[in-house]
Amino acid sequence: MTDKLILVLNCGSSSLKGAVLNNDNGDVLMTCLAEKMGLPDAYITFKVNGEKERVELAHAPNHTGAVEALLAELKKLGLYEKVGAIGHRVVSGGELYSDSVLITDEVIAGIEKCIPLAPLHNPAHLLGIHAARKYFVGLPNVAVFDTAFHQTMPEHAYIYAIPRKYYTDLGLRRYGAHGTSYRFVAEEAARFMGKDSSNLKLVIAHLGNGASIAAVRNGKCMDTSMGLTPLEGLVMGTRSGDIDPSVFSFLANNAGMNIQQITDMLNKESGLLGISGLSNDCRTIEENAEQGHAGAVLALEIFSYRLAKYIAAMAVAAGGLDAVVFTGGIGENSNTIREKVLTYCAFLGLKADHERNLAARFGNGGYITAENSPVTGVVIPTNEELMIAHDTARLSGL
Ligand code: ADP
């Protein structure tokens, strides 16, 4: 345990999210968000004790400028001296990393090697890592990979049924995502239920704007719904999830669309947004469904039905089912979707408790099935930043 603070960085191509956490108690002392990076009007917003401060990044509207501004802010707040290490979220570690690692030049080369698997994200993470090394001289940097937790999946879960050469030559396989969240939630769920995580069959649904589900047997991931990219699996805010790949040739032949246009449509215009024609935001969909909007009603039903089908499938991967765990913005807040899913899955032994399900909203978490339910349903709020902070402290020796 340490009294040092951890800086957690999550760099996207046009944004940078940061947080300073106390690794012991999870307290967040500061958060920041840099936006519009790459454009002349880029800026970074710092949030401390609920107060916001905006700093323009006009002189350097990029990751380097944002990290420089972050350093200045930490010095101003008197937090700089207390930061002991920096943890970086990295989307893809491919098959190279099955755990978080202390960043060395070799690890930077490894993250570069994985760029084909995360062409938008890994380059942005590298910009953040280089900037952190430049401005926070001497501090250890740790990479925490979204894919690492899924590296325990057996071959029969990660190999696609296509000619093997595409895997051996190009690394085309299923990798999954949201791994840091799954690891946190699996541990927390075991703790909450008073069970030993090394003897527990969990199916965990991480339902945010991106949504996926994973089977965790005795603390290890056995399968997950996202594949080579986050497009596979569940219905999401704007992603279709599983679809017949022949959609590509159908739309090319019948709508004159090219590969990029179809890929964009499946990633950005589909899911809750595509079905409802209204929004990718679950709250908006629920409000409109209550008013009787047919598209919104159907979107909720398809989302819930497809999720329920996946829960049953993931019970196969977990080799049984002790508990179904819900997390992420939708999983933690939408009692409507949880109730629909529990109803579909009643035959698996999930006995819904309406009152408990309502009480579990708004970050409260808790059981959503009856005390005598053969299979437990539970909501566990995720905290990826804290998991990154824990790994960073562990690997930095703090
Ligand atoms: P991200 O994947 O971007 O981290 P979140 O985990 O924050 O996303 O989840 C965002 C989703 O959670 C949105 O669809 C949002 O509508 C949904 N959500 C948040 N609060 C509620 C709520 N009270 N009821 C239903 N859905 C909610």
| C-alpha Rg (nearest Å) | 21 Å
Number of domains: 2
Shape verdict: globular
How is the CATH topology of the largest domain named?
Nucleotidyltransferase, domain 5
How far apart, in Å, are the first and last alpha carbons? Answer: 7 Å
Q: Report the portion of residues in β strands.
A: 15-25%
Q: Which structural category do the helix and sheet elements fall into?
A: alpha/beta
Q: Helical percent range?
A: 25-40%
Low-confidence stretches: none
Q: Enumerate the strands of the largest sheet in spatial order, edge to edge or round the barrel.
A: 5-4-3-2-1-6-8-7
**DSSP E strands, number:** 14
CATH class of the largest domain: Alpha Beta
CATH superfamily of the largest domain: ATPase, nucleotide binding domain
Function: Catalyzes the formation of acetyl phosphate from acetate and ATP. Can also catalyze the reverse reaction.
Pathway: Metabolic intermediate biosynthesis; acetyl-CoA biosynthesis; acetyl-CoA from acetate: step 1/2
Binding site for ATP: 17, 206-210, 281-283, 329-333
Organism: Kingella oralis ATCC 51147
